[in-house]
Specification:
It is built from two helices and seven strands, in the order βαββαββββ. It has about 130 residues and is of the alpha+beta class. The longest helix is centred in the middle third of the chain and has 19 residues.
Length: about 130
Amino acid sequence: MIKKNMEETNRGFMKHLGGLNLKKIDDKNYEFLTDVKEMHLNSGNIAHGGFLSTIADTGMGTAAHKIAGDKRCVTIDLNMKFISPALLGEKLNGKIKILKKTRTLVFINCEINNDKDTVVFASGTWKIL
């Protein structure tokens, strides 16, 4: 089993959200960990949907970049299903699965969980540039 940290997820916009600890498990599976901090909360005191969308997009996008041989990839479709709330202080674990890679596209799923529930199920398509 390969466990490799990827620093790409701690630069740019993600740096302002606290970064994302992304690890490669094998060629088609990746995982990330992050904590819900006060700056990630909406007015209802649960993790903002924009924060959850960003970590899913960043994790899946980095996985697409890696499976595409480090070529630049851009999100062309992102589908989010918000299932359960994530609360302040919770650790979120994202499991990313590469479903298929073609010459120009990568299809990916991501499930984000706290310690008891599925918080988000996301899927998307990335264009290899």
